[in-house]
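User: Quick sanity check before I run a bigger batch. Here is a single chain. Can you write out its predicted 3D structure?
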Amino acid sequence: MSVASKVLSKSLVSSAEREHEADSDWEIVVCVQAGEVAAFDQLVLRYRERVFGLIYNMTSNREDAADLTQDSFIKAFQSITRFQGQSSFFTWLYRIAVNSTLSHLRKSQLRTFFSFEKITEDDKTTELLAQLTDKDGADREVYVRELPEKLTRRCQN
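Assistant: Done. Predicted structure follows.
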């Protein structure tokens, strides 16, 4: 058997398997849409690892991937009545997962955390921290008023 025929036969098997999977998914979706809520568990069990892997590859964070996987299935369940079968269920779920993850990543980029642990111990930083913690210092009040604005500006850059 040639390499080309092996590849062709493998793609045909995968295609047939996927077609069967899509038919099976559609039957489950119809049951869920008819009110058999427990049937959705079958879809979760079938696709949770694939969705988790997809999201983990996008976030590189296990906790975020687990949370976003759960959120994706919740959104899919809440919107199941709108699923019309124009694509496979997994394609629809995939788009929900990708969109949720992209939204999460955009929000995460807006939130930059300031850590006092990452402050380098140079003379300027040490002097500023000393002035901020000096309760009797004349400049303390000015620094305390400016600090929120400066931190906000720094976090947005």
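Confidence is low (pLDDT under 50) at residues 5-13.

User: Great, the batch can go ahead then.
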